[in-house]
Amino acid sequence: MVCRVRAQGKGEPVIELTDVAYSYGDGELLGDMTLSLPTGSFYFLTGPSGAGKTTLLKLCYGELLPTAGHLRLFDQDVRSLDRDGIAEMRRRIGVVHQDCQFLDHLSIADNIALPLTVAGHSLAGEQQNLAELMNWVGLRDRADALPPELSGGERQRAALARAVIMSPDVILADEPTGNIDWEMSQRLLQLLVELNRMGKTVVIATHDMSLIRAAKTQVQSRVLRIAGRRIQQAGADL
């Protein structure tokens, strides 16, 4: 049975999956997924370990292509995009990875600025924006620190800053609070809520139900759950 999920009261879809499946080798990990995420929506993605949350996020930013079905990002079929088209599309999606990998020989400011460098932007003209971004995530005084010198919470905030430095339309966060304490989890959630209030689409993969409940007073969000290779909407608005 195909489960169809569509949020209400928001803008045009930025991510659309139609009958999407994804298989590793001979085994299907995800199947019959039909999902539409509109501009400005806020979603939590839940499910047991190994259910496919990270795989679904990778499909949503074009790191993986579906083995069946159709995937559209910003109204473009990902199969129709060449390498340059994929690269351009990915600039519109900021990803906070679960493992927060940085280049340890570069300062945290230079790590955050890496997407600008890759995109060919002049860093000289971006210093004010970079400083403002680091202040926003509370790392202004840590700009010259190396990644191994950061705490877990600082690394996660740096990862968020790096994900949004190109001003993406969509932010995907994979277990962003998995290795930090509750107080820092709340601080990171507040930053993601602020991004959503700016009109960004936010999707957070998490197993932390306390985090989802804490979002209730801050943002109108919905919960998607992956189980048995399928996705379903879990309950009403938080």
UniProtKB/TrEMBL annotation:
GO terms for molecular function: ATP binding; ATP hydrolysis activity; transmembrane transporter activity. PROSITE patterns: ABC_TRANSPORTER_1, ABC_TRANSPORTER_2. One of its GO terms (biological process) is cell division. It holds the Pfam family ABC_tran. Keywords: ATP-binding, Cell cycle, Cell division, Nucleotide-binding. One of its GO terms (cellular component) is plasma membrane. SUPFAM superfamilies: P-loop containing nucleoside triphosphate hydrolases. Residues 15-238 form the ABC transporter domain. This is Cell division transport system ATP-binding protein. It comes from Lentibacter algarum.
